[in-house]
Amino acid sequence: MPITPEQQxxxxxxxxxxxxxxxxxxxxxxxxxxxxKPVLDHGIVRAIDYMGDDAAIVQAARVSYGRGTRTVSNDExxxxxxxxxxxxxxxxxxxxxxHVKLPVFVARQWIRHRTANVNEYSARYSxxxxxxxxxxxxxxxxxxxQNNQGRGTVLEGxxxxxxxxxxxxxxxxxxxxxxxxxxxxxxQGLARELARMNLPANVYTQWYWKTDLHNLFHFLRLRAxxxxxxxxxxxxxxxxxxxxxxxxxxxxxxxxxxxxxxHLSRGAVEVVRxxxxxxxxxxxxSGLSKxxxxxxxxxxx
Length: 301
Hints:
Layout: H1 5-16, H2 27-30, E1 37-39, E2 43-51, H3 54-62, H4 72-84, E3 95-103, H5 104-110, E4 117-120, E5 141-143, E6 151-154, H6 157-182, H7 192-195, E7 204-212, H8 213-223, H9 230-246, H10 248-259, H11 266-276, H12 283-286, H13 290-300
Antiparallel strand pairs: 1-2, 2-3, 3-7, 4-7, 5-6
Function: Catalyzes the reductive methylation of 2'-deoxyuridine-5'-monophosphate (dUMP) to 2'-deoxythymidine-5'-monophosphate (dTMP) while utilizing 5,10-methylenetetrahydrofolate (mTHF) as the methyl donor, and NADPH and FADH(2) as the reductant.
Region (Disordered): 1-24
InterPro entries: Thymidylate_synthase_ThyX, Thymidylate_synthase_ThyX_sf
């Protein structure tokens, strides 16, 4: 269970409170505030706070004193222009703060996105819960034979059960030892900051993660991609659903130009021009490596 009844009561109390404000608010994300979105077996994503909306992006780009008299279509056109031409600063005027509960190995991938403010649950100060990520059977896969950092076919039958049993047993055994090292009845007990080193990478941690919209889009472009590891991709998908409601115009442009768009090298563009001119171009005559050629053909079909 991602959250306890006591935690849910605290969330419900937060969501029941409203405060008058003069700042711009976005109804789409207001509906998400504080709500715990379940992810994986014990994880959550919660929107805690935000600043700005689609209008804030436009306002920053025009450096205006207010929302102005332009129509929504004008605003959408400007946002799409900014996205299309890689003007990042106006998108940095919007920020979001998220509460995320996630396995440690996912957190170590996530923290590679360094353009954010992060405050993580301290296992030096507090005791971690007995909660571990155990993959669902359909996500228990063998190593890919083609991709050194990817998955292959799904494990089945006795082999799948053997792996699941080992994951559960090892996780619980490590936590038993963790508790035993912390115990003070009849012994001094090991310091929390040392006892934690015995815990596996699938134990859950929590953090507050605050970033601006430009860098959040970069995170989503990489982590919501079908090639991203499943365990971080489901978090990215949950965040994307919140962002889509928060800044619908900006998110639409992001989907079109970043998620659904493609980037071609100078050599690949020249190949396209030659093809459009009627020339039959092959990998050998393209000037591209085999991998570059395959990637370019994957884009242009």
